[in-house]
Specification:
By secondary structure, the protein is an alpha+beta fold. It is built from 16 helices and 14 strands. The structure holds uracil.
Length: 441
C-alpha cells in the first residue's frame, strides 16, 4: 500500500477501507509516513469529507494506537463528559461531585490548559496540596470508596491523534467535522468510559461558529459512540460569551463552589443541570430528565454535592476547608476595573479574546512549559443582555500588579465586549440535544 495512492483516493472523494485507514494510522504513529503526506491527506479530508464508516474506522484505529484504559475494576456505569472547549468552562469541577453525590461513579481523566482555554487539572492544582497524579490502583480505590476522582491524563492515550492533531494545528486542517469527531471520540473511547456526554459549543469562542455546524459535529460523534457500543448524548450549547463570570484557575474553583452552594451565575448552573441530567440518565440513576434534574437540585440544596467536593479534595491531598471557605484559595495582589467607553447593551463577549487576555495575565500557558499563576484572572461584571452606561464596570481584572501587562489586558477585555443600542434577542443556552434517537431542539 502506498500513502500517495491514499491521498489521491481521498482527494477524489473515494471511500477508504478499514485496512487503508489502519495503514495510515500505524504509519503516522511509527513515523513511516512523513508529515507532509499526512498533512496532504488531512487537507484532502477537509475538502471531500469522510463517510460514517471511514470516520468510525479512523476513530477506532486512533483509539487503539496506544493504551486503552480498562475501568471495569470500578463498580457501576462510568459516564464521562467532554466539552469541545470553552473559556470559563469549569463544569467538570461542579459535575464530578454533583453527579457522584447522585450515585454515578466519576473516574475522570482531564487535561491541562494551553492557549486561550483553561484545563481542569490546572484549576484543581490551584487548591494547595491537591494531587492530580494517582496510581491506577489508588484512582480505582478512591472511586470505589467515595464515588469520584479527577486525575491528569497519564500514559499513552491515542498517540495517533496526538500526532495528527499537532500536525492539523499547523496546517490549517483542524476544522473538519470527521477529523474533530474522530479526534475527540478516539480519546474518550481509549479512556474507557461506558457512556459519554458531550458538550458541543458553538459561537465566537468555539470551533463551530454556528449551531447547525455544531449539530453536524455532534451527530458524527454520537454515530461513532453508538457504533462502538458507548451510549453517547451531546448537548449543543452557546459560546458567544464565556461561561459564568470568573475566568482563571483559583477564580474558577471559587465559582464552582458557589454553584455547589446553590449560588453562582444562572448560565453555569443551568448548563451543569443539563449535562449532569444526561450523565444521571446514561448512568441509570434517573427515570427521565425531570427526575434527573430534581435529583441534582436536591444534591445542591442539601449540601450533599458540596460535601462530595470536600471529600474529593481531602482524598487527593488538598485542604477540604476550601469548600466552605473559598477565600483560602490564592488571591491576586491587585484589582483593575475595566470601564465601558460607551452606553449600550452587551450583545456578546468574544470568549477567545477574554481567554487570551487571561492567559497573558498569567492564568494560562502560551507554550506547554510555561508556569501559571493560580490567583490571576478576569471577573466579568457585565454579561450579554446587561445594560451599561459609559464608565460602568464591564469587568475586574485580578492581577499581580497594576502594570503595563494589566493595562494591555484591560484594553483587550474592553474591546472583547460588543455593545449595541438595542437589547439582544434572547438566546437559549442549550440549543439542541443530539442522541442516537435524533435531534431534539
Ligand atoms: N479537540 C480535539 O480533541 N480534537 C480536535 O480535533 C478538535 C478539538
Amino acid at each position: 500500500m502506498r500513502m500517495v495512492d491514499l491521498i489521491r483516493k481521498k482527494r477524489t472523494g473515494e471511500e477508504m477501507t478499514a485496512e487503508e485507514i489502519r495503514f495510515l494510522v500505524n504509519g503516522v504513529v511509527s513515523g513511516a509516513i512523513p508529515d507532509y503526506q499526512t498533512a496532504a491527506w488531512a487537507m484532502a479530508v477537509c475538502f471531500t469529507g469522510m463517510t460514517a464508516a471511514e470516520t468510525a474506522n479512523l476513530t477506532l484505529a486512533m483509539a487503539q494506537s496506544g493504551d486503552v484504559v480498562d475501568l471495569s475494576g470500578i463498580r457501576g456505569v462510568k459516564v464521562d463528559k467532554h466539552s469541545t472547549g470553552g473559556v470559563g468552562d469549569k463544569t467538570t469541577l461542579i459535575l464530578a461531585p454533583m453527579v457522584a453525590a447522585c450515585g454515578v461513579p466519576v473516574a475522570k481523566m482531564s487535561g491541562r490548559g494551553l492557549g486561550h482555554t483553561g484545563g481542569t487539572i490546572d484549576k484543581l492544582e490551584a487548591i494547595a496540596g491537591f494531587r492530580t497524579e494517582l496510581s491506577r490502583d489508588a484512582f480505582f480505590a478512591q472511586v470505589n470508596e467515595i464515588g469520584v476522582s479527577v486525575i491528569g491524563q497519564s500514559g499513552n492515550i491515542a498517540p495517533a491523534d496526538k500526532k495528527l492533531y499537532a500536525l492539523r494545528d499547523v496546517t490549517g486542517t483542524v476544522d473538519s467535522i470527521p477529523l474533530i469527531a474522530s479526534s475527540v471520540m478516539s480519546k474518550k473511547i481509549a479512556a474507557g468510559a461506558d457512556a459519554i456526554v458531550l458538550d458541543v459549543k458553538f459561537g465566537s469562542g468555539a470551533f463551530m461558529k454556528t449551531a447547525e455546524d455544531a449539530i453536524e459535529l455532534a451527530k458524527a460523534m454520537v454515530a461513532i459512540g453508538t457504533e462502538v457500543g458507548r451510549n453517547t448524548v451531546a448537548a449543543i450549547t452557546d459560546m458567544d460569551q464565556p461561561l459564568g463570570r470568573l475566568i482563571g484557575n483559583a477564580l474558577e474553583v471559587r465559582e464552582a463552589i458557589e454553584i455547589l452552594r446553590g449560588e453562582g451565575p444562572d448560565d453555569l448552573r443551568e448548563l451543569c443541570l443539563e449535562l449532569g441530567g444526561h450523565m444521571l440518565l446514561l448512568g441509570g440513576k434517573a427515570a427521565d430528565r425531570a427526575d434527573a434534574r430534581a435529583k441534582l437540585e436536591r444534591a445542591l440544596a442539601s449540601g450533599e454535592a458540596l460535601r462530595k467536593l470536600a471529600q474529593l479534595i481531602a482524598a487527593q491531598g488538598g485542604d477540604p476547608a476550601v469548600a466552605e471557605r473559598p477565600e483560602l484559595l490564592p488571591q491576586a495582589a491587585a484589582r483593575v476595573r475595566v470601564a465601558a467607553d460607551a452606553d449600550g447593551y452587551v450583545h456578546g463577549i468574544d470568549a477567545e479574546a477574554i481567554g487570551v487576555a487571561a492567559m497573558r495575565l498569567g492564568a494560562g500557558r502560551a507554550t506547554k512549559d510555561d508556569a501559571i499563576d493560580y490567583a490571576v484572572g478576569i471577573e466579568l461584571v457585565a454579561k450579554r443582555g446587561d445594560r451599561v452606561r459609559r464608565g460602568d464596570p464591564l469587568a475586574v481584572l485580578h492581577v499581580r500588579a497594576e502594570d503595563e501587562a494589566a493595562a494591555a489586558a484591560s484594553e483587550q477585555v474592553r474591546s472583547a465586549y460588543a455593545l449595541e443600542a438595542e437589547p439582544p434577542a434572547r438566546q437559549p443556552l442549550v440549543y439542541a440535544v443530539v442522541s442516537k434517537d435524533g435531534v431534539e431542539r
